[in-house]
Structures are given as C-alpha cells and as structure tokens.
Amino acid sequence: GYGPAVPSVFLRLPGGLDLAKGSAAVSLRYLNVDEALELLPPVHDQACTMVVGHLGRSPAWWRGRVFQEEPTEGASNLRPVVAERAGSACGYALFRQVRHRDRQSDSAVVLEELVAVDEDSRRALWHLVTNVDLYPNLTWWNCPIDEPMFDEVARYRRVERLVRDSLWV
To answer: Would the pTM count as exceeding 0.85?
Structure first.
C-alpha cells in the first residue's frame, strides 16, 4: 500500500513578529529575471548538498517553471532577492505580494522559496520577507517542517502551521 512519507507545512505569519536581522556582512538586493537565472541556481545547487531530499533543477526548470509562471489575480510578479556576502551569493528568496483591496491589514507576502547556505543569510532573508512595507502578513505553502525560524520567533504562538503530507510512497 501507499502511505505519507514526506510532510510539508503551510505557514501563516501575522505582522509584528520580530525576527533577527542577521549579520551586517550579508547584503540583500532585488534582481531582474536575467540576474536571477545567473545567480540563484548555484546557490540552490549548494543547498541541495546540505539538505536531504532537496531536488536539483535544470536550466529549463528555472526558466520555464520558476520564472515563467503567471501570477494569480491580485498578485505581483515574482520578486527575486539575493543575499550576498563579500560579493558571493549565499541565499535567496522568491516571493509575490498580494494586496487586499478592502483591508490593507490582510495584505500578504506569498513566499515561494527561501534558500540559504548559512544562518546569517537565512536570518537576513527572513527579516526582509517579514518586513515588506504595507504587506504585514506572510504565507508559505511548502515550508520545510524543520525550518529553524520556528524556534527563533519570540511570539511563536502567533505562527500558524498546518502540517500536511507532501509525498506519498
């Protein structure tokens, strides 16, 4: 028979959670698609060697699956951000912004991916995506179950996590 083998987490973070910024040695910058296609795959490849079950991606996957998906109605285009230390990429985040027309307080950052090869870049990226001006909330439909941020947030009871099966074998 079949059974659940890999869980994933649907994550919802309300605004006002204070997360550490990370080291000042890590800088963040937004990228255009061409820059992202050049800088992000090597970071992803490095992360694959550090995380069990992290799947590699071909250039066609990056171009056709990651950067060609159209946003749903009300969502922004994909926003790629790279974390760099001493001029080398050490992490990235991909997210969209969804504005709630009637209640600004319900607007949210929809995180697609957050990948980092060290703790400082991970913290810097989390701080960025949880502090996007006018978008106080964050959701992530496929957050890793062992995401370290869960242990770092001061008011952890405000973090909503729905664990569900992601892969059956």
So the answer is: yes
